[in-house]
Each structure stands twice: as structure tokens, then as C-alpha cells.
From TrEMBL:
Belongs to the small GTPase superfamily. Rab family. Coiled coil: none annotated. It holds the Pfam family Ras. It comes from Anas platyrhynchos platyrhynchos (Northern mallard). It is a lipid-anchor. This is small monomeric GTPase. It catalyses: GTP + H2O = GDP + phosphate + H(+). Its EC number is 3.6.5.2. InterPro entries: P-loop_NTPase, Small_GTPase, Small_GTPase_Rab.
């Protein structure tokens, strides 16, 4: 079942490659931290908006 939220936010993170932008987004969006996260450098961009 999908989660229902009161607010919707769009966030733009800017920074050098390899500094942890994706890890930070996952940490707050999914309340999950993985210290052995696979790098997204060179990965195709994805998203829905």
C-alpha cells in the first residue's frame, strides 16, 4: 500500500561527484542508511518529475 503524505517537496542537491548526494537523499526519503552504498557516478538519471 502506498504511503499517504500531507506535503510534497521537490529537492535539488548540488555538489561534486562522489560526495554522497544520493546517499543523503535515500537516508531522508527512506529512513535508511547504507555505509556500503554503490556509487551512482555514471548512472543514468531517473525520476518522475
Amino acid at each position: 500500500m502506498a504511503k499517504a503524505y500531507d506535503h510534497l517537496y521537490k529537492l535539488l542537491l548540488i555538489g561534486d561527484s562522489g560526495v554522497g548526494k544520493t546517499c543523503l537523499i535515500i537516508r531522508f526519503a527512506e529512513d535508511n542508511f547504507t555505509s556500503t552504498y554503490i556509487s551512482t557516478i555514471g548512472a543514468p538519471p531517473t525520476g518522475n518529475g
